[in-house]
Write a structure and sequence with these properties.
The chain is mainly β. The protein is built from nine helices and 72 strands.
């Protein structure tokens, strides 16, 4: 079927395609766009609209289009060519690109910008009323910075990269990244500054302040891209390099240039140039050879010629060796020109790694004083970066003046496979005269501190010169023995006069036989149960790995948890059947039965599985192809052909329409958002509108086919949760189909016409079928002539059963207990909405049984109340504003009252508010027990909102939504006694 909506969808595609085709690619634009697109940004602005344009398109998945204010200067020369940039000239709030998108609140995010600043004035790159990301910060000496308004103007700690002051009059790539370590800033792909302070990512405006006329940028902006996760260092560097390179050259991906500690078995990876057909790979240990070689003079470093792949495996590399490599891009016929690439380098991991002195405990037979204790040999005092040691005595260990049995001992935090010990002998200025430095020494080692072995030969440590230029340490070879404790039994000193001894510094190197660098990092959350592959940096000489996994920390630590074996330094944890909402501990032991120590236990790491599996949260859809919702949830209108969908789709032949009509001039959503953004579930930013009209016996429905079949049993899933909001006047019977199994909505038929959010819970155990292989989900509405609008949000699989989510027996017991007390209003399993609770006044009791969501993050949550209509304007609050974590009550326009009693998120709770107009007091009882009171009567009678505070009598506008379940509400025109309150609470809770 065809309609005006279909025609408008097609016209929008033609316009956007023409705009793309008319642009001129310069510099590395193609490479840049390819990398950004592959990274799946949530917001992406190119600022390449024509002068005079007022609207800008978000090319990211978020669909957050913007508006240029009056003073912006579009059509400027950008890094990517003419007309590719916007000029901001510090024109206040009128000189910004305005999205009104607020903030991206996420555990991790990345924001990258291509800009040219013209002055060192304070300037915001992106901003909101709460936060600002700046190219020049407030009070930080013109450095890159960010702000949380009213809290902090953050200053970065230098990371040793480029200057924190961004240069003037040149194009730069600036990246801000938030992750578990804090916020980092990168300049042209290089880490520049770090701080543990964090903020949300502001996306309200770009180029200046969202909430004021100050801090506007004075300069050009070519690109702004926002991601809802943290890009890797390699991604950031690749993104930074791409715009400044011609499209003919390769971009390094792995290993990054000049990095160290690279795996011996690493592979080389790069992003190819736009026109490259094949690649020549040069690889060797000498810079000049790799730089000078070519096809006619291979110099033994042209290791692969005319290869198609963008990777190269150089084989097993040498320890601690620096390698150089180059990728020449070979273009196509007829000329097949070759473009010489840059020279990159990396250094392979060392054979052994120094054990930090902080992880070693030093003890000794004696010490001369408190300034010359044995730990002085571990703390690096007196040791310069160039390996020289000072002559200051307080940087060394000295025994007592007479020590008949001198020794010094070092204990590690765990058993180590020792490689070498470096020893800097005593180097005081009097060393040549006195000779405290140790000479002959016996070296013993032990794994337990009780049973000892000795190195075959006693060592002799060279005498230090007593000069500040001393750098020639001695090396003792342990040959890979396993030890937790090392003791040096001192047999003589170099002076032979005094029975006193001294050392300057000792360092131990261990062979890394224990696993390290887990992925995901220890403590990671949000792990999907059915798709968990963990990996780690393998211990040296391991033949295989034993992986222990359990929710029991002690069982993992003791090596008695369930385990599996890996030969690949990674493991798919699906064999352990991870359950949603659980924290799992895991450990990897490296095993090689051919070694003297056959097992090297690893540290215990952790990960936490998600509480629910998202089927579709509708956050990724937007106004632009290929992310329009009807391109995934197929409807009756279909969509036209474009570069992403060359075949198009003619519709499913029903009266279903997905998304608001943003193309028709007569539509109230014209030029707006295709997704619903005003009415969403708490914590959601957008939901999916589903319009339906059943005619001619055809049932409206929308179907999503999953690109890969989904396992709806993973993680112990028991329930499918589908939140929906109806519309007044809706008719019909809601249903879904999972594969081809149809399930009818089992709630009250009138709920389809209720505007409040309600959740349809479906017991998966009753469905049958192949839930391990779900290929499609259909949502439809049965009924001849049925029509309306249903909004869908946040479809999830949860591990809880319906009985645990809705305690039916407890609700029934409570309803049985309260009925004899003749409430004026009684309702169970409440759907948010407007209800008539009866005429009450004087002394009133309002009773609730509720469970808020455990992770609720609302600033204020209403249980019951109204504003702007009726004879009173008041509400009872589960949580008082602003985010107090305590129960409250409000007389709107007069006062917010706080009971001072903490809420219990996620727990079943019984509440009674006893209000007395005679005394002017409202008392709160929680789970049958008096909690506190406020000095104000709260009277709400007649029509009122429940589950939110209603602003209009029909419930079309509301605020302070309750995030959770209201299992029951009862209102009484008499006060409940404390005995009855306790009895009602017991009926529900016990």
């Amino acid at each position: 079927m065809m309609s005006k909506c279909t025609i408008h969808r097609f016209c929008l595609y033609i316009l956007t395609t023409a705009a793309v085709m008319s642009s001129t690619a310069q510099a590395g634009k193609q490479k840049w766009e390819s990398l950004v697109r592959a990274s799946n940004p949530v917001h992406w602005y190119g600022f390449n609209e024509d002068a005079g344009t007022t609207d800008t398109e978000d090319k990211g998945s978020g669909g957050l289009n913007g508006t240029y204010r009056a003073l912006v200067d579009l059509g400027q020369e950008g890094l990517f060519g003419d007309g590719e940039a916007v000029l901001f000239e510090r024109g206040g709030q009128d000189d910004v690109m305005w999205t009104q998108g607020g903030d991206l609140a996420a555990e991790a995010w990345t924001a990258e910008f291509i800009v040219k600043k013209l002055t060192h004035d304070v300037a915001s790159l992106s901003d909101s009323p709460a936060f600002s990301i700046r190219v020049v910060g407030w009070g930080v000496n013109e450095e890159l910075s960010f702000t949380e308004y009213g809290v902090i103007d953050a200053q970065f700690d230098s990371a040793g990269g480029p200057d924190l002051v961004a240069p003037l009059d040149e194009w730069i790539h600036v990246t801000y990244r938030k992750n578990a370590q804090g916020v980092q800033v990168f300049l042209n792909g290089v880490l520049t500054g770090t701080t543990s302070t964090t903020i949300d990512c502001p996306i309200e405006s770009f180029g200046g302040r969202a909430g004021g006329a100050s801090d506007g940028m004075n300069g050009f902006m070519d690109e702004a891209v926002i991601y809802d996760y943290d890009l890797t260092d390699a991604d950031i560097l690749a993104h930074a390099q791409a715009p400044f390179l011609p499209d003919i050259g390769a971009v390094i991906l792995n290993p990054l240039d000049a990095v160290t500690d690279v795996f011996r078995t690493t592979s080389l990876r790069w992003a190819p140039g736009t026109h490259a057909v094949t690649h020549d790979v040069y690889f060797g240990t000498t810079f000049d050879d790799v730089n000078d070689a070519h096809r006619n003079a291979a110099m033994d470093v042209l290791v692969s010629q005319d290869q198609d792949a963008n990777t190269f495996d150089p084989g097993t590399l040498d320890f601690d060796q620096t390698y150089y490599w180059r990728i020449d891009e070979v273009n196509g016929a007829p000329d097949r020109p070759i473009f010489k690439g840059d020279i990159w380098s990396f250094t392979v991991e060392p054979y052994s790694i120094q054990i930090p002195g902080a992880d070693i405990i030093a003890t000794a037979s004696s010490s001369s004083n408190d300034f010359s204790m044995p730990e002085k040999t571990l703390d690096g005092s007196g040791l310069g970066a160039d390996g020289t040691h000072s002559i200051a005595p307080d940087t060394m260990w000295f025994t007592a003046a007479v020590d008949l049995e001198p020794w010094i001992q070092y204990e590690f935090d765990e058993v180590k496979k020792l490689d070498i010990m470096k020893v800097w002998n005593s180097n005081s200025s009097a060393e040549n005269a006195i000779g405290w430095g140790i000479k002959d020494v016996g070296v013993e080692y032990s794994v337990d501190g009780e049973n000892w072995d000795a190195l075959p030969e006693a060592a002799q440590i060279e005498r230090a010169p007593g000069l500040p230029s001393y750098s020639q340490y001695d090396t003792v070879d342990f040959g890979g023995v396993a030890a937790r404790v090392v003791r040096l039994n001192i047999q003589s000193n170099w002076g032979g006069i005094l029975m006193a001894y001294s050392l300057s510094e000792v360092q131990f190197n261990a062979i890394p036989v224990v696993v390290r660098t887990p992925s995901p990092a220890s403590g990671s959350t949000g792990i999907l149960p059915g798709d968990v592959v963990v990996s780690w940096r393998a211990g040296r000489q391991a033949a295989q790995s034993t992986v222990y996994v359990s929710t029991d920390l002690d069982a993992v630590a003791d090596g008695v948890a369930p385990s599996a074996t890996s030969n690949t330094h990674s493991m798919d944890l699906s064999v352990f059947d991870l359950q949603m909402g659980e924290t799992y501990y895991w450990r990897v032991d490296e095993v090689n039965n051919a070694e003297a120590v056959s097992v090297w236990p690893g540290p215990v790491w952790s990960l936490t599985v998600v509480d629910a599996l998202v089927v579709d949260d509708f956050e990724s859809y937007g106004n632009v192809s290929p992310d329009r919702p009807f391109q995934t949830w197929l409807d009756g209108f279909g969509y036209s052909t474009d570069e992403f969908f060359p075949a198009g789709y003619g519709g499913n032949g029903t009266g279903a329409g997905i998304g608001h009509d943003i193309w028709s001039l007569s539509s109230p959503y014209y030029g707006g958002d295709i997704m619903e953004t005003a009415n969403t579930m708490p914590g959601s930013s957008q939901a999916m509108p589903f319009y339906y009209t059943n005619t001619g016996g055809v049932v409206s429905h929308t179907e999503r086919t999953f690109a890969a079949p989904q396992d709806w049993t993973a993680g112990g899933a028991q329930t499918l949760s589908i939140p929906f909001a109806g519309t007044s006047g809706n008719t019909g019977q809601l249903y879904i189909e999972i594969n081809n199994t149809k399930v009818l909505y089992d709630g009250d038929a009138t709920n389809m016409a209720r505007a409040g959010w309600q959740t349809w819970l479906i017991d998966l155990s009753e469905l049958g079928g192949a839930l391990e292989n779900v290929t499609s989900l259909t949502i439809g509405v049965d009924g001849a002539g049925a029509a309306g609008l249903v909004t869908i949000d946040d479809i999830r699989l949860i591990s809880e059963s319906i009985d645990s989510l809705i305690p039916a027996a407890a609700i029934q017991a409570w309803e049985t207990a309260v009925t004899p007390d003749v409430p004026t209003f009684l309702l169970t399993n409440v759907v948010d909405g407007v209800y008539d609770i009866g005429t009450v006044s004087g002394d009133i009791s309002y009773e609730f049984i509720v469970r808020s969501n455990a992770d609720e993050a609302m600033a204020s949550m209403g249980l019951l109340g109204r504003r702007d209509f009726g004879d009173s304007s008041a509400g009872l609050k589960y949580e008082q504003w602003p985010d107090t974590g305590t129960y409250g009550a409000t007389i709107f326009g007069v006062a917010d009252h706080d009971f001072g009693v903490p809420t219990a998120p996620g727990e079943d709770t019984h509440l009674v508010f006893n209000s007395s107009e005679a005394t002017g007091i409202t008392s709160l009882y929680v789970n049958g027990v008096y909690g506190g009171q406020i000095e104000s009567a709260i009277t709400v009678s007649g029509v009122t909102g429940i589950g939110y505070i209603a602003s209009t009598e029909d419930g079309s506008t509301s605020f302070d939504n309750f995030d959770g379940n209201i299992f029951g509400v009862a209102v009484y025109d008499v006060p409940l006694s404390e005995a009855k309150i306790a009895a009602h609470a017991d009926a529900f809770l016990k």
